[in-house]
Amino acid sequence: MRGITLPSWYRTDYDSPAADRYLRGIRATGAEWVTFTPTWYQKRHTDDSLHTTEETASDGSLRRIVRRAHTLGLKVMIKPHVDLPGDEDRADIRPRDRAAWFTSYRRFITHYADLAADTGTERLAVGTELAGVSGDSADWRSVIRAVRDHYDGPLTYAANYDEYRRIHFWKDLDLIGIDAYWPLSATPTTDPARLSRAWKPIKDELAAYAHAQNRRILFTEAGYVSQRGATTAPYSWTVSRDPAPAEQAAAYRALLDSFTGARWWAGVCWWMWDDWPDSGETPVKLAYTPRGKPAEEVLREEWGP
């Protein structure tokens, strides 16, 4: 999978005039896949249900952008998210009534399974970074069975890099999904070789895990802000206020050089192409987007003809 995520933060984002431009930009990197992230919300981490808000991509806009992506020759993964207000972490979701929460969750995820089936979406994630509930294996197997009743394509779950070993339902899915935000360096660096050395023990561990589970591993997310220190905390939007596009580019190159060609590795979907106009809280020069930066050139070199 040569992929890039185009997330949404508002119900009409995917109908934005920028949508076609963003999709063409993604395709021009050599990407063959794009991931979309419709998001439902809950007000508190202990709530027993989730719901749409004005920040949830409308079904119509999602259907239309899937169609546009397919027209451009891009395959699609839909990776629905559940979020909390502000900067609260979805990994902290721990509902008071787990049975009620999973009933609500099945309604949520089968809704997108139907949409994925209707639009010819090529891959679906059944969940993303829900570490507070991902240990409830029997409930997840029930969710997965329900999804398969609605959608016939390959399924994954996007586990955070420090969560994936605690997942016990990988064999019910088609791919192991990992959001690959491993810290690679104690100090900022622009040296791809140094970063590749840091990946080596992680790669060895993942290869063994893929073999033990008899499943390939997909990096459902990986990304780096273009800030000094991005390689020390890839999961952070605010490592520093100092632009460091060379560090971001080095991290892109090291990941691709380290994993491309490994038979057990199913590819990567980079986080993320861009914020929508006027919606980004992080200035573009500091954000995760590779667009217009040396990291985009790395993608073109690695993925181009």
TrEMBL record:
Q: Which Gene3D superfamilies match?
A: Glycosidases
Q: Matching Pfam families, A to Z?
A: GH113 (PF22612)
Supply the InterPro entries for this chain. GH (IPR017853), GH113 (IPR055151)
* Alphabetized SUPFAM superfamilies for the sequence: (Trans)glycosidases
Q: Which domain of life is it from?
A: Bacteria
In Swiss-Prot or TrEMBL terms, this protein is called Glycosyl hydrolase
